[in-house]
Amino acid sequence: MPSFEIELSPVDHITTDAIGPKGKRVFYLQGTQDNQIVTLIAEKFQIQALAIGVEQIFAEITDRFPELSKPSAKYDEGIMRIILPVHPLFRLADIGLGYDVENDWVVLIIHELIPESIEASEDDPTQEPRVVRFSCTRDQLQALGLWGKEVVQRGRPICTQCGQVEEAEAHFCVKKNGGHKHN
Fold first, then answer.
1. Which residues face 19 on adjacent strands?
2. Which candidate among 3, 40, 51, 161 keeps its CA 20 to 30 Å from the CA of 124?
3. Which distant-in-sequence residues (6+ apart) come within 8 Å of 14 by Cβ?
4. pLDDT at residue 127, as a whole number
């Protein structure tokens, strides 16, 4: 059991965003409840994976509960922006998604990334990864997934062959067995 947990259940707002110039952006995941703002640092691939996970969990929910209405497939960019100033709690290691049938909420379970140089010991349990749980409506999660895709796409282009970021000068693509220049 983690030694530190935060639960926002339900969130008033949940979003992801990136701050900084292309190639040097820092990605964030943020949830709010009343006056509490919890911001976490993420990697671009984690936001991409979250967007895919949103699609997958909705497919599972639809299969298991066909009587449920479909979530709203829209978002307002002005509302989806991250709340500033940003004070991240930790860098996330992974995100799990679950469905709370009783409340009709989707739950994001986020674990902290602990550097390999720091290991928990019986003498110091504070090195256990911290956990944050965000419970949100299906509409909120749908908006998060759609907005997450948009945020990721605003950066450097992704190679359609290997899935890696294409550099401005040249891109070495293992699928094409070599590098190629982009115009």
1. 26
2. 40
3. 29, 30, 31, 32, 108, 134, 136, 140, 141, 144
4. 73
Give the per-residue pLDDT at 164. 66
- pLDDT 10s digits, 59-93: 999 999 999 998 887 889 989 999 999 999 999 99
Is the bond leading into 10 cis (omega within 30 degrees of zero)?
Answer: yes
pLDDT at 116: 75
For domain 5-156, is the CATH number 2.120.10? no
Contact assessment for residue 44 and residue 155, using Cβ atoms and an 8 Å cutoff: yes
C-alpha 11, offset from chain centre: 15
- Please give the structure tokens belonging to residue 56: 């997958």
Determine the average pLDDT of the residues in 104-133: 80
Whether this prediction's pTM lies above 0.85 is answered by no
8 A C-beta contact, residue 37 and residue 83: yes
Instruction: Parse the chain into domains and list their residue ranges.
Output: 5-156
> What pLDDT, in 10s, does the model give residues 139-148?
999 999 999 9
